[in-house]
Q: What sequence folds into this?
């Protein structure tokens, strides 16, 4: 009640607040600003690691448990074992890096599930991939989804609060938030269903 206005970065964030504190009249949602022209310009940087002959998925995120990279690795392995050729690239760094590297080695998918580390400019990678993915256990309003939309990428996410970012975006697939559904839906994508 001391504040003149309360600003939220997403509608989901505002709803959680209202659930806790009730309906307060002085609240507003303002999304983070994104410089579209800057993203389009930076996306022009030349990179040559993504091959044109295989389907590619890309994730940009912190390497933390909530992002579900571990289950993405397990799903990827099952899809590879099914004979569905594709590659997954992950841009980011974080406390789960060693665990994820070990899981990639343990499942013997080092050539097809690639942890790229942190990149100052992720946009050319987003531009070149076939699908941008965010398969988190839970997620807020993902600004990286706005960036992928600017680059007109098909987006695949799990059903989290991040769905708010793609509500009116036609090139999206929202998957139920469990490993089996992720496997089934990515299999359909790779089979062209």
A:
């Amino acid at each position: 009640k001391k504040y003149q206005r309360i600003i939220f970065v997403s509608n989901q964030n505002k709803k959680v607040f209202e659930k806790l504190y009730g309906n307060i009249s002085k609240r507003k949602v303002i999304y983070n600003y994104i410089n579209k022209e800057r993203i389009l310009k930076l996306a022009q940087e030349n990179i040559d690691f993504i091959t044109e002959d295989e389907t590619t998925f890309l994730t940009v995120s912190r390497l933390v448990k909530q992002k579900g990279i571990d289950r993405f690795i397990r799903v990827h392995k099952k899809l590879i074992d099914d004979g569905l050729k594709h590659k997954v690239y992950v841009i980011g760094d974080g406390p789960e890096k060693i665990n994820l590297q070990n899981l990639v080695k343990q499942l013997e998918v080092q050539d097809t599930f690639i942890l790229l580390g942190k990149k100052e400019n992720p946009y050319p990678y987003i531009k070149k991939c076939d699908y941008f993915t965010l398969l988190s256990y839970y997620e807020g309003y993902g600004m990286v989804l706005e960036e992928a939309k600017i680059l007109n990428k098909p987006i695949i996410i799990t059903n989290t609060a991040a769905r708010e970012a793609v509500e009116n975006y036609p090139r999206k697939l929202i998957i139920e938030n469990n490993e089996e559904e992720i496997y089934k839906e990515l299999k359909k994508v790779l089979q062209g269903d």
